[in-house]
Amino acid sequence: MQPSAASSFARCFLIDPILPLGEGFFILSIEFYFSLWYNYYELLLFAHKKRESEEKMSDFKIETKCIQSGYNPGNGEPRVLPIYQSTTYKYCSSEEVGDLFDLKADGHMYSRISNPTVAEVEKKITDLEGGTGAILTSSGMSAILLAVLNITKAGQNIVSLSAIYGGTVNLFAVTLKRFGIDVRFATSAMSDEEIESLIDENTRMLFGETIANPALDVLDFDRFAALAHKNGIPFVVDNTFPTPILCRPFEHGCDIIVHSTTKYMDGHATVVGGCVVDGGKFDWSANPEKWPELNDPDPSYHGVAYVKQFGNDVAYITKARVQLVRDMGIPMTAMSAFLLNLGLETLHLRMERHCSNALAVSKYLSAHEKVESVSYPGLEGDPQYALAQKYLPNGCAGVISFVIKGGRDAAVKFMDSLKLAAIVVHVADSRTSVLNPASTTHRQLTDEQLVAAGIPAGLVRLSVGTEHIDDIIADIEQALKNA
Ligand SMILES: Cc1ncc(COP(=O)(O)O)c(C=O)c1O
């Protein structure tokens, strides 16, 4: 049996990378030759796939895209996206492999790099966000890491807004520092000049969250996109909370989107996952010396230059997959992608309900005598209301926070009295849930330290689910009586 390019590649790089000299060396040489060709084929394949997915990009409304984009079965094929639970892919003849080389046929090779189930869901998310390509990853954190490392190396830096998810703050402030990457934090209260003073010739991106978790600040896209582009760097946005149903950052000057698909996209708390989406508009070739990793030959891919070979619009996402997902080994699995796709099919319906329920709960809480304050960008009078009206006209998702009178004790009593809502270290799924940072994630801090950190002891983070609004409010009401 002829060794296929795929198996040669697998044997050469994945199974037996160190062969003895002599006969083994000969096998290695042949296999190395195959692997080089395979790598080349693989890159061409992604360009081919890009063209193909462009053809399938629909003009449908976003609600229809949630259901119909991505998997498009042919005659007699399964109606529902199949789970290709396979690490590898068989090719029956040299001719077929030849067809793959000639791009007459499409195919996958090894599921660390791509998988048919995962690829269909990537297509769907690309279509939902209006991008040019996407990569699903093992978690939201690995998506953020991928987005940064794809264009940032030791000795360089990024600028990030500080109102972002705590796990991302940790990645940026601690772990990336160990990699030699400096992260400079900015706040939206700073002037443009103050923020620009953080940017230098080694700055690679400006990062922010559309709706910050847990601060619930709304990103001023126009301002930060202009700041990033004036300084020649991409604007990278974590769009986890709104999802493309409520906000499409590429329409507001964002260049790269990241997601924790673990949240609303999955929506059922079943799958940890993440996604990087390329908007395809940032001009990496305008200043090629600044972006050598995308313009210069890549030695790990026999000298391919991503911008030149694939075009500006997919250079970033192609490199991220064939180089970094390959090397870091952070793909989403087929089973996870299947479950995520089920979640995406109802995303538009769930987001509508999350928004209307959260708005009703925030109105109810702001009128309650035991509640000191409520934060929800969709609530009239909230400091974020104007930005929310501009960028999130259809709603602000389901996460709200409020401060209960009586501090930590009252918050604990309130949470322990809830019957429908559950205490979980998670937000953004269909079930209403709560968390009191002072008694859980931030329990080591004193009340004074909590205030200094902007987290009052009585602060409760409420992730409003999709249950009937009357049941959610009745549960909160009876729990507030006990608080
Ligand atoms: C806004 C945001 N980004 C990223 C992450 C990290 O995602 P994951 O938990 O899927 O790694 C989270 C997790 O809560 C998040 O809220």
Descriptive account of the structure:
The chain is an alpha/beta fold. Among the domains are: about 60-100 and about 110-150 and about 235-345, Aspartate Aminotransferase, domain 2 (3-Layer(aba) Sandwich); about 350-480, Aspartate Aminotransferase, domain 1 (Alpha-Beta Complex). Helix content is about 45%, strand content about 10%. The chain has 19 helices and twelve strands. It has helices spanning about 5-15, 25-55, 60-70, 95-100, 115-130, 140-150, 165-180, 190-195, 220-230, 245, 290-295, 305-310, 310-330, 335-345, 345-365, 385-390, 405-415, 445-450, 470-480, and strands at about 135, 155-160, 180-185, 205-210, 235-240, 255-260, 275-280, 370-375, 400-405, 420-425, 435, 460-465. Strands 1-7-6-5-4-2-3 form a seven-stranded mixed β-sheet, with helices on both faces. The protein has a five-stranded mixed β-sheet with strand order 8-9-12-11-10. The chain is globular and about 75 Å long. The termini are far apart. Bound molecules: pyridoxal-5'-phosphate. Pyridoxal-5'-phosphate (PLP) binds near residues 139, 165, 167, 240 and 260. Pyridoxal-5'-phosphate (PLP) binds next to α6 and α7.
User: What small ligands are held by the chains?
Assistant: pyridoxal-5'-phosphate
Uncertain runs = 1-34, 50-55
Shape: globular
Question: Approximately how much beta-strand content do the residues carry?
Answer: 5-15%
- Number of helical regions: 19
Going across the biggest sheet, name each strand in turn: 1-7-6-5-4-2-3
**What is the helix content?**
40-55%
- CATH architecture field of the domain at 58-98 and 108-151 and 234-344: 3-Layer(aba) Sandwich
Estimate the mean pLDDT confidence: 88
Q: How many angstroms separate the termini?
A: 73 Å
- CATH homologous superfamily of the domain at 58-98 and 108-151 and 234-344 - what is it? Type I PLP-dependent aspartate aminotransferase-like (Major domain)
Briefly, what CATH class of the domain at 58-98 and 108-151 and 234-344?
Alpha Beta
Secondary structure class reads alpha/beta
**CATH topology name of the domain at 58-98 and 108-151 and 234-344:** Aspartate Aminotransferase, domain 2
Number of strands: 12
Largest beta-sheet details: 7 strands, mixed
Radius of gyration: 24 Å
